[in-house]
Amino acid sequence: MSSASAAVPAHASRSPSLKGRVRVPGDKSISHRALILGLLAVGETRIEGLLEGDDVLATARACEALGAGVVRLGEGSWRVRGVGVGGLASPAAPLDFGNAGTGSRLMMGVVAGHPIEATFDGDASLRSRPMRRILDPLERMGATVVSCAEGGRLPLTLRGAERALPVEYESPVPSAQVKSAVLLAGLNAPGQTVVLEREATRDHTERMLRAFGAEVSVEPWGAHGRRVALSGEPELSAVDVIVPADPSSAAFPLVAALVAPGSEVTLEGVMTNPLRSGLLTTLLEMGADIRLENAREEGGEEVADLLVRGGRLSGVDVPPERAPSMIDEYPILAVAAAYATGETRMRGLHELRVKESDRLAAVHAGLIACGVEARIEGDDLVVVGHGRVPGGGPAIATHLDHRIAMSFLVMGLGAERPVAVDDAAMIATSFPAFGPLMRELGAEIHLEAGA
Ligand code: S3P
């Protein structure tokens, strides 16, 4: 459905030191949710700091197609006039989510709870990703898969329930997307919809549902898990949402500052939600010089300025239970591990195989191409750091994956020879200003065709 855009090759070369103070764009997870809850609320939701990346823009268009009035007022400043829970209309045309797993999966939850029908589609990466994990609970709630590609993949047409049923659902995978889809479907079901998660995943949906007026209770469940219960059929009222800076985007300049010697970089207002902070925990264990300054609250989330200084890192063992809090950060952690001294073992990475690409395979192949010692053992990625990275290999295959592209461009900043990536175009899905922001800090990153 999304036409494949032309590849944008890019490369990065050794940069002496990075200096400066920057703010990365708004959090992608929160941006999707702000638009979607704006659609489901009565009244006008104002959003400041919305990430204007392709993924989020696809969600904005989908909200419009389902009946919301969506207006861009200025940079990052948006207004959504909602239709209220129960007030959605079937979209006239298929919803094209491009590369966006979160947007498509959360919106499947929204559609499943309403007596409407919608077709979901996306690019080659999204078409390859598993949707059964979302469709299984939604079918239990009364939704019907009218048609789908083999293996429950996109393009697929979903017919929502005439009268959605509340469920108690234990997700077999630790996934905030699955949890959120079930909760969003449960908004239009009577009674309590409960999600049991064995490992706590990011809680932005729960927090934002509460801010919009829903009743959501969260209790500990099992050793690391949670029981999340939503009271159905709330009247959601529009609120103002301030989107904090995305820790998953901040991860790139952060690790860049750690691997380019002599660097000193401040990243402003980065969200420090504990369910998103696994990378910070791990880098601190590796001996990174990162200070959290000016800790405060913004828009219902904890944020802080991160002062990062380059220096020596040591290999560590990253436990599997940390994965949900840093699931998107393993590619860039692998870069930090390559520059560290000693072995870093990242355990329990099976979920990385079903991200925008098979990230376990893509990271491993990229490390080898850069001359880094690395191996996959079962679901673990092992990187043996020698404090230096040769670089200079063939262009890294990015497989339509923004985080693979950004990670290996950061790899090039400390490498002995430049590191090239085959396509940086997908960076626009989550961090459109990556190139200019990194160059502002002094990074030698060159993207062709003005990406
Ligand atoms: C997200 C959840 C995670 C993450 C994704 C964003 C979200 O996916 O990888 O980038 O906003 O809920 P899973 O729920 O599949 O782990």
From TrEMBL:
Its main location: cytoplasm. PROSITE patterns: EPSP_SYNTHASE_1 (PS00104), EPSP_SYNTHASE_2 (PS00885). Pathway: Metabolic intermediate biosynthesis; chorismate biosynthesis; chorismate from D-erythrose 4-phosphate and phosphoenolpyruvate: step 6/7. Gene3D superfamilies: Enolpyruvate transferase domain. The active site is at D328 (proton acceptor). Residues 17-434 form the Enolpyruvate transferase domain. Catalyzes the transfer of the enolpyruvyl moiety of phosphoenolpyruvate (PEP) to the 5-hydroxyl of shikimate-3-phosphate (S3P) to produce enolpyruvyl shikimate-3-phosphate and inorganic phosphate. This is 3-phosphoshikimate 1-carboxyvinyltransferase. The lineage of its organism: Bacteria, Pseudomonadati, Pseudomonadota, Alphaproteobacteria, Hyphomicrobiales.
